[in-house]
Amino acid sequence: MSRRAEQPQARDGIAQQPADRVLTWPNLISFFRLLGVPVFLYLFLVARADVAAVVVLAVGGTSDWIDGWIARRMRQVSRLGELLDPLADRLYILATLVAFTARDVVPWQFTVALLARELLLLGSLAVLRRHGYGPPPVHYVGKTATFLLLAAFPILLLAAAVPTVSAGAEAVGWALAWWGLVLYWAAGALYVIQARRLVRAVRGREGGRHE
């Protein structure tokens, strides 16, 4: 039995296998979320339509919760959905960071802190793939961090675009952003620990076979 076939087992911390479905409501929402990324970048960096960009970010952040709720409610969890949802999250976060840094909405240090976590996660995923495993399931800490960041970004953009609400929106936006950053790193640490356990389990099994 390959390690990929062993993935769903509870002892490895991997969730049960989802269905092989493509055309589901959650997947359609995720596709539209992905389309929203270039739309946001155009509105924010090219057209400089900041209010419209706020709307796109807000819709993208809200739909992240909606597609997960629909998937569970309608039992439409799928392998494609498990790939599309975190992909859309990361693209929204990375695109927003790049755009916000380019226009001085957030300091470059904040961007570097988030990008460093992404590099840490990519390294962990590379180690897992080398041992025959796919990505681990999304942890609720990571989902909470993503929710906070996706909520913070449109509020920070609103603070930059609408001077009359700047003070209050900036305070709320940065409170959410910093909490999101802390939890983002906490989730990254959990993924690294989980990857380490999986690798140690593989080495233990391989060592047992060679004895």
Compile the SSE list and pairings.
Elements: H1 3-6, H2 25-46, H3 50-73, H4 79-102, H5 108-130, H6 140-161, H7 166-210
Helix pairs in contact: 2-3, 2-4, 3-4, 3-6, 4-6, 5-7, 6-7
What does this structure look like?
By secondary structure, the chain is mainly alpha-helical. Helices cover 78% and strands 0% of the residues. It contains seven helices and no strands. The longest helix is centred in the C-terminal third of the chain and has 45 residues, at 166-210. It is globular, with a radius of gyration of 19 Å. 31% of the residues are buried. Mean pLDDT is 82; it is low at 1-16.
Q: List low-pLDDT spans.
A: 1-16
- Report the sheet-strand fraction: under 5%
Helix-strand pattern: HHHHHHH
The quaternary structure here is single chain
Structural class by helix and strand composition: mainly alpha
C-alpha geometry? globular
| Total count of helical runs of at least 4 residues | 7
Determine the mean pLDDT.
82
Question: Could you provide a short overview of the structure?
Answer:
Helices cover 78% and strands 0% of the residues. The protein has helices at 3-6, 25-46, 50-73, 79-102, 108-130, 140-161, 166-210. The longest helix has 45 residues, at 166-210.
